[in-house]
Design a protein that fits this description.
Layout: H1 14-21, H2 25-34, E1 40-41, E2 47-48, H3 51-65, H4 71-97, E3 101-105, E4 111-114, E5 126-130
Antiparallel strand pairs: 1-2, 3-4, 3-5
């Protein structure tokens, strides 16, 4: 990283995270127990909150206070958002895989790219599928 902190880096102790989110530390403990916002743990098992955790706490507070959603509803919303994020990541992975290009070589060694949906002529040549490198 170029001098910037990772949004997922566990940097805030519970008192600082609570202050940044405008909440009481006991509220953060309750959210952790309920699985609504679960921070990372330090070696001594103390909670360490990231910037992303603090933003999540603010969103929980907004949903609760402004939208009137109870904690069970908020937990379900968070679960669905995580599931949607996983599905989007999988879609991107699949899109990267399906951008394969197909090449055919004839007996003389002449190579040509085939348009999508086109089959090579059966001339005893070779068929090669090229996929761009995908890093998970």
């Amino acid at each position: 990283m170029s001098g910037q902190l990772d949004d997922d880096a566990p940097i805030y102790v519970i008192s600082v995270a609570a202050q940044l989110a405008g909440m009481h530390p006991q509220t953060l403990r309750q959210y952790d127990r309920l699985g609504i916002v679960s921070p990372q743990r330090a070696r001594g098992r103390g909670r360490r909150y990231s910037r992303r955790d603090v933003e999540s706490l603010r969103e929980v507070q907004r949903l609760s206070q402004d939208e009137g959603i109870n904690l069970a509803g908020i937990r379900r919303i968070i679960e669905l958002e995580r599931e949607l994020d996983r599905a989007r990541a999988e879609l991107e992975r699949l899109r990267a895989i399906t951008t394969a290009r197909v090449f055919a070589a004839d007996r003389s060694g002449e190579v040509s790219e085939l348009p999508p949906g086109r089959r090579p002529r059966r001339t005893g040549g070779a068929l090669v599928i090229w996929r761009p490198q995908h890093r998970p």
